[in-house]
Amino acid sequence: MKVVKVQFHKLDKEYFFLPKFSEDPEAIVEVGDSVVVNTSLGQDVGLVTAWDEWQAPKSESQPSAQAQVENKKDKNNGELVQEAVSDVKVMLRPLSQDDLEKLITQKREGIKRFSECKKLIQKHDLISMKLVDMSESFDNQRMTFYFIADSRVDFRDLVKDLVKCYHKKIRLQQVGVRDAAKITGDLGSCGIPLCCKSWLNIIGSVSPDSIKNQELNHRGADRLTGPCGRLKCCLRFEEEVYKYQRDHMPKEGDIIKTGAGPAKVVAVHPIKETVELDIDGSLVEYPYLEGKLCEK
After folding, report:
1. Residue 35: in which H helix or E strand, if any?
2. Which of 49, 42, 163 is nearest to 113 (CA)?
3. Cα separation of 277 and 45, whole Å?
């Protein structure tokens, strides 16, 4: 069954909806459209991110790195539940001009509330808690505050103050530093806006193995980490090329045949497609041709 993915906030996951509108059946859905939807949590505005085929979520529960709290606890902790195809609903309507004006007003109010929440964080002396963004549902019933923290944070008193101040459902969601960079943005060392801010929708993990595989150990940590303090996402971009090349080349320590006789592989350079060899105590670099002798 064809569905569309809708995301309500950059730091939230995507949800499935039928590619139809109940209020405007003739409207066409396209990726990049802003839409108004009704959910079990209320009315909200989201962005159509992609077309997809409906697939039920995995049965096994996956641990979450997010800490979520609502002043009224419910079974889904403030997230939509889509366990069966019956949970996938039609959308309400494309975003209208009136909806847009309401959204702009909400954004302006959001700046004020973001500042007020930061003051409350200082009031409760939550030193390790850094607020990075906030959002409000389109029906003005729920507010979500996104934050990063190095350690566990007891924000129960903060939630009580926020509920008392705004009289709405409050959700606090902890995110990673990579996600925070996606919101705050910055310029990379390359001089252009961060990939995670401008176009990279899915931020995957970057393994230290990427540094070794791409022979970047000599660069130093400062040149390999981004403004978020983690390894740069772009280290993943060419990783598959390096893996492919390495899979078709000998490993360090292998003994291979050359025109000068047997040689031990000391180092492998995947992009140059060369290997450094120890031949009778002398180190030489040869181009490597799979299945053939190494020749200069």
Report:
1. strand 34-39
2. 163
3. 61
**Those residues with Cβ within 8 angstroms of residue 263's Cβ, 6 or more apart along the chain or in another chain:** 255, 256, 257, 277, 278, 279, 294
Tokens of 243: 């893996």
| Confidence band for 43, pLDDT divided at 50, 70 and 90 | very high
- Specify if 118 maps to a domain: no
Q: What's the domain count of the chain?
A: 2
Query: Which helix (DSSP H) or strand (DSSP E) does residue 105 occupy?
Result: helix 97-123
Task: Identify the H or E element spanning 224.
Answer: helix 221-224
The pLDDT tens digits for 171-206 are 999 998 888 888 888 888 888 999 888 888 777 788
CA 31 and chain centroid, separation: 19
Cβ-based neighbours of 254, under 8 Å, separated by 6 or more: 264, 265
Same domain, 219 and 263: no
3-state secondary structure of 177: helix
Looking at per-residue confidence, does 167 or 213 come out higher? Answer: 167
The answer to whether residue 260 sits within a structural domain is yes
State how far the Cα of 273 lies from the Cα of 185, in Å rounded to an integer.
37
Range of the domain at 281: 247-287
Q: At residue 106, does pLDDT exceed 80?
A: yes
Which amino acid is residue 276, in one-letter code? Answer: E
